[in-house]
Amino acid sequence: MQIDVLLGLQWGDEGKGKIVDVLTRNYDVIARFQGGPNAGHTLEFENIKHVLHTIPSGIFHKDALNVIGNGVVIDPVILQKEIENLKKYEVDFKTKLLISRRAHLILPSHRLLDAASEQAKGKMKIGSTLKGIGPTYMDKTGRNGLRVGDIELSDFQERYQALVEKHKAILANYDFEYDLESLEGPWMESIDALRDMKLIDSEHFVNQQMRSGAKVLAEGAQGAMLDIDFGTYPFVTSSNTITAGACNGLGIAPNRIDQVYGIFKAYCTRVGSGPFPTELEDEVGQRLRDAGNEYGATTGRPRRCGWVDLPALKYAIMVNGVTQLMMMKADVLSNFEEIKVCTHYKYKGELIDYLPYNIEPQNLEPVYESLPGWTEDLTGLSQWKEMPENLLNYVKYLEDQLEVPIGIVSVGPKRSQTLMREELLASISG
Ligand code: GDP
Ligand code: IMO
Ligand code: MG
User: Are 268 and 308 in contact (CB under 8 A)?
Assistant: First the structure.
């Protein structure tokens, strides 16, 4: 069996959690491949909203196995809190949640380094979620990191201490006050809890599952525009959020990848700093924020809002090899008289239709095309054929422009509010 990948095409928060949950009934294994608790993946069913940060979004399905892959960075305190929150739902974590020994650990001192570094950046701050993501991946590539498998070693304490001493030496260079000790107790307790969980060599496990015919879905975090290589650097996260990240983050070979599901909002949002060509800093942007309830699932920060950006989406489709698109939050656009789509940029006096190296606002101005909106409330729809004509036109327009079919249109946060184009989804359930 092959593996399918599902990931975000914009700046994160596209609705990955919801769609992974919807698709899980067609899969045996759901595997997160990168990022960490900077992610906030929201699922809603039976009138309860769940936000997952580290745990894969297939966890509510009794038959699915959920893997936290080697590419993920884990804060054990946050992971234990997530598990604690889900205890009342009788999830069998001992057998359903499998954690890679090769995944790196976020130490309390990584979080302090994140905060110190952001504070020192002043105006250039990234707007990090301050979960310690950057410093942890830095220690990974710098070959200093601690991995989940290390907690099974007899000298784990010494290894921990050695890394903390390095961090203290770095922190001494910042004008930054901290209290590490109060964070260390809960962290060590959560490490004990982690020892009782199912730790695996996930690269062997995932490949073995595929060999035995299981269907695997790789779940991405963040989005293509936050990718460390292809995003709006330096205002990005510290991992490869694109399809290639699924190979690194799970140990699967590129030729095993079948479908790549690319998720985007019917408009666009970004949380944190950095360029955002189609951002609307006016009442239309505020209307999108209100209608879409655009406040971060991890930090609660208001998300910046704007129109869909085709050159950026085409770029994301290209670097990810997207085979199917999924358009989220179409319901939010109801009652907008016109829907704008950025088709080109004016860049250094020229009209271009691709994403250039430098997308700082002083170099680039979006050029829009306008499409008619619709007034129908979409939140009660359950079938593709019920879509109002102007929404269908919007879908067709985007498919023509992006040259990739749209397989799902989402019309609300709940599982049931998902319009599927059956012929395209046949590949999933086949
Ligand atoms: P993720 O990080 O990609 O999983 O996305 P988030 O969970 O951070 O943000 C998506 C938000 O939109 C969540 O609050 C979801 O409950 C909500 N959501 C998902 N799909 C839809 C949709 O089609 N319509 C509306 N109105 N909300 C949606
Ligand atoms: P999900 O998986 C939206 C953003 C932060 C910041 C930048 C770097 O829910 O889509 P980091 O904490 O990684 O140092 O932050 O990336 N960011 C996200 N924005 N959704 C996310 O995840 C994000 N994870 C990180 O706001 O601008
Ligand atoms: Mg999110």
Answer: yes
- pTM exceeds 0.85 for this model: yes
Q: At what angle do helices 243-250 and 202-211 cross, to 10 degrees?
A: 110
Residue nearest to atom 27 of ligand 1 (CA): 413
CA dist., res. 116 & res. 379, Å (int): 44
Instruction: Report which secondary-structure segment, H or E, holds 393.
Output: helix 389-402
Q: How many CA atoms lie within 13 A of 238 on its CB side?
A: 22
- To the nearest 5 percent, what fractions of the chain are helix, strand and coil? 40, 25, 40
- Statement: residue 422 has pLDDT above 90: no
Find all residues with CB under 8 Å of 168, minimum gap 6, and list them: 109, 180
| Long-range Cβ pairs for the range 184-191 (8 Å, 24+) | 184/108, 186/77, 187/76, 187/77, 187/107, 187/108, 190/76, 190/77, 190/79, 190/80, 191/76, 191/151, 191/156
From residue 197, alpha-carbon distances to 72, 87, 192 in Å are 16, 14, 9
The DSSP symbol for 35 reads B
| Average pLDDT value for residue range 63-92 | 96
Identify whether the C-beta of residue 246 lies closer than 8 Å to the C-beta of residue 252.
yes
End-to-end CA distance of the chain: 11
Angular region, 90: left φ>0, alpha ψ -120 to 50, beta rest: left
Q: Where in 177-289 does DSSP place strands (E)?
A: 198-200, 216-219, 257-265, 268-270
**Active-site annotation holds for 13:** yes
Tokens of 381: 């729809």
Closest CA to 74 of 105, 34, 97: 105
Q: Which chain residues have CB less than 5 Å from ligand 3, an ion? A: 13, 40, 297
Q: For residue 410, report the phi and psi dihedrals to the nearest 5 degrees.
A: -100, 135
Mutate to test the pocket of ligand 2, among 38, 124, 232 (most ligand atoms within 8 A of CB): 38
* Residue 388 CB neighbours (<10 A): 17
Q: How far is the CA of 8 from the centre of ligand 3 (A)?
A: 10
Residue 363's pLDDT is 87
pLDDT band at 424 (very low <50, low <70, confident <90, very high): low
